Amino acid sequence: MARTDNRYEKARIIGARALQVAYGAPVLIDTDQTEPILIAAEEYDDNILPFTVRRGEHQ
């Protein structure tokens, strides 16, 4: 299923994943990239990140 995140959600997901990669989390794809933000963006584009965006009522 294709992602339908808006640009703010996309930025938050990629930023959070880049932080994980920067702190040593395993990379989920084969890539030639070395910068965590570029790795995270590539993972996002391949739709393999285990992040879920919850939308709905604010508490």
Structural notes for this entry:
The protein is mostly helical and 59 residues long. It has a domain at 9-45: Alpha-Beta Complex (Eukaryotic RPB6 RNA polymerase subunit), CATH 3.90.940. Helix content is 44%, strand content 0%. The protein has 2 helices and no strands. Helix 1 crosses helix 2. It is elongated and about 40 Å long. The relative contact order is 0.21. The mean pLDDT is 90.
State the secondary-structure class.
Answer: mainly alpha
In round numbers, the mean pLDDT is: 90
CATH topology call of the domain at 9-45 = Eukaryotic RPB6 RNA polymerase subunit
Q: List the helices and strands in order.
A: HH
Roughly how much helix do the residues carry, as a percent range? 40-55%
CATH architecture of the domain at 9-45: Alpha-Beta Complex
State the separation between the terminal residues, measured CA to CA.
Answer: 28 Å
Number of strands: 0
Low-confidence stretches: none
- Oligomerization category of the chains in this entry: single chain
Main sheet overview: none
In the CATH hierarchy, what is the superfamily of the domain at 9-45? RNA polymerase subunit, RPB6/omega
* CATH class assignment of the domain at 9-45: Alpha Beta
Number of helices: 2
The share of residues in extended strands comes to under 5%
From the alpha carbons, calculate the radius of gyration and give it in angstroms: 12 Å
Global outline: elongated
